[in-house]
Amino acid sequence: MTTSILADLKIRFSKAIAAAFGAEYADYDPAVAAAKDTKFGDYQCNAALSLTKKLKQKPQDVAAQIIANLEFADRFEPPTIAGAGFINLKLQLSYIAAHLAEMQKSDRLAIAPVSKPERVIVDFSSPNIAKEMHVGHLRSTIIGDSIARILEFQGHEVLRLNHVGDWGTQFGMLITFLREVYPDALTKADAIAIGDLVELYRQAKKRFDEDPEFKEISRSAVVELQAGGQSAKQAWQLLCEQSRREFQKIYDALNIQLEERGESFYNPFLSDVISDLKATGLLQEDQGALCVFLEGFNNKDGQPLPLIVQKSDGGYNYATTDLAALRYRIREDQATRIIYVTDIGQSAHFAQVFQVAQRADWLPESVQAIHVPFGLVMGDDGKKFKTRSGDTVPLKSLLEEAVTRAYADIDSRNPDAPAEFKKDVANAIGLGAVKYADLSQNRTSNYIFSFDKMLSLQGNTAPYMLYAYVRVQGIGRKGGIDFDRVDFDRVDSAISLTEAPEIALAKHLLQFAEAIDAVAEELFPNRLCQYLFELSQKFNQFFEQCPVLQAEEETIKISRLNLCDITAKTLKLGLGLLGIRVLERM
Q1: Strand, helix or coil at 155?
Q2: Residue 492: predicted pLDDT
Q3: How many CB atoms within 10 Å of residue 2?
Q4: Nearest CA to 475 among 555, 540, 549?
Q5: Taking the first listed entry, what is the main subcellular location of this protein, grouped into a coarse class (predicted)?
């Protein structure tokens, strides 16, 4: 097991810089990256130019001293210096072949777990009780899941939390309305369908906004619920359980694992938040409300903007709950990295919550609190993705349509296949296509939702990736090769790299660990998608230009079959980290 080549190179160059110029440079950024132009090499160190001013030496001389102290002979050809002191390195073909052999024998593709695992919380999905999950929850759910999968693969202890909206004024409003129009829904399980419950919620909200008497009764119901009133609590539990079962159907379909901790979980800790903030002297009263005035956030008059943590009527809000949750996750869960996956519209809210937590000394420097924002899903008209009637698109119907379209395509291409086979393939392709179409985007950008594009066998899509995997499996079947039983330690099973497409594919396979590291650090799953897309492209170029089963020599045939096998294993693991299931046949 090894770390990524890039991570290893950073360590080597850091040591070389310190050895060349003194211990005070031990933490100097070595500025190592994969080479943009492979004709110069595979990796490049750009530290010499930035060191020139400090050392008052020519960049070429600085580069030469770094090389003189660099350990490279076990992996790289002798480094070269180009331009203004750029150090270029090229991997030895013998090292590439040896590392590929290690990858092939390992379930983890020879990628070592992190040396210092962290306790990480990923807060994602977060639907609201009595509402259907919609396309906005799709982004949070699958982005959060892919980040959690990658961190788990690295060896971190990951707590996947679902911060469900299951508390607050909306429940008093809904309970009050249902007591009038559908009392059975508050005493009998599943007395009303979730779709009807959503419609009743809308009617209750309209009534709440228009009827002052209804609003007052609703607020009384909230007080009753918060005080533990038996009738209100039973009604609340029934509504939560019904919604929870509907959510679980979608999580099961998407293969998502979550631990629910709704807003109600933190309700007992809200008063402690206020007490602690008072003790720190951060709280100020403003028009009857208790607030923390923020630094760097100003209103239209240029005055510091307050974050309200207790309303003038004594009630709490989202900010109070999020502060209580953050405080609990640090103190009780002992998390050192807390990741929130929500839409980009909440960026300011989380920046404010994090600032208050820092100023209250709840959020120490040793703990990272990170907001992972994402953009909107758009329709073909460039507007927010909605149904023809203007409603938010239910996530359940969107996923069902993706599978239905995938089934129709498979049925048209392979009508004689067994129905169960077509159903399984359609499920994998349809759900995988929806996930991949989202994850392959830069998450901070809006993207246009298109079934036609995401289900296409061409381009950067899940079907293209899945087909590349299936193609490799087909090669093995056609050649009568069971990769699981090949003895890779035999001399005649060694990997030999001679042709340019072979070498390009092999080098890209070695960069898989770097792609995983990049996502774990930067939290952009599209980095892994881009890697897999390029891997599929390089494999197709290799397969088209380098005969595998028709290779002239048996040793070359086996070597190329090994490359095919490692490619398939990398695709399977990579897609699995995105939450996408591969298929043996399509």
Answers
A1: coil
A2: 54
A3: 13
A4: 549
A5: cytoplasm
Is residue 568 within 8 Å of 539, Cβ to Cβ? Answer: no
Please give the sequence-ordered ranges of beta strands (E in DSSP) within 335-425, or none if there are none.
Answer: 337-343, 368-374, 377-378
Q: What is the pLDDT of residues 340-392, one digit of tens each?
A: 999 999 999 999 999 999 999 999 999 999 999 999 999 888 888 876 666 77
Mean of the pLDDT values across residues 211-236? 85
**227 with 78, same domain?**
no
3-class SS of residue 88? strand
CA 504-506-510 angle, to 5 degrees, is 115
What CA–CA distance (Å, rounded) separates 496 from 500? 12
Ramachandran quadrant class, 170 (left: phi over 0; alpha: psi -120 to 50; beta: rest): alpha
pLDDT score of 197: 82
- Pick the last residue of a domain from 91, 114, 146: 91
Cβ-based neighbours of 122, under 8 Å, separated by 6 or more: 144, 147, 148, 151, 158, 159, 160, 161, 339, 341
Together in a domain, 273 and 335: yes
* Residue ranges making up the domain that contains 40: 5-91
Cα Rg, the chain, nearest whole Å: 28
Do 159 and 204 reside in the same domain of the chain? no
**Two tokens, residue 516:** 């995983």
Q: Residue 327 is encoded by which pair of tokens?
A: 């405080």
Do 123 and 82 contact (CB within 8 A), yes or no? no
Q: Are residues 141 and 195 in the same domain?
A: no
What's 372's DSSP letter? E
pTM: 0.93
Q: Are residues 192 and 226 in the same domain?
A: yes
Q: What is the mean pLDDT of the chain?
A: 91
CATH of the domain at 324: 3.40.50.620
Percent of the chain with pLDDT over 70: 97
Alpha-carbon span 129 to 197, nearest angstrom: 10
566 is a domain residue: no
Last residue of a domain, one of 332, 353, 377: 377
Query: Does some domain include residue 364?
Result: yes
Phi, psi of 189 (to 5 degrees): -65, 135
Both 370 and 270 in a single domain?
yes
**Coil/strand/helix, residue 284:** strand
pLDDT digits (tens, 9 = 90+) for 226-261: 777 888 888 888 889 888 999 999 999 999 999 999
171-178: average pLDDT: 88
pLDDT bracket for residue 486 (50, 70, 90): low
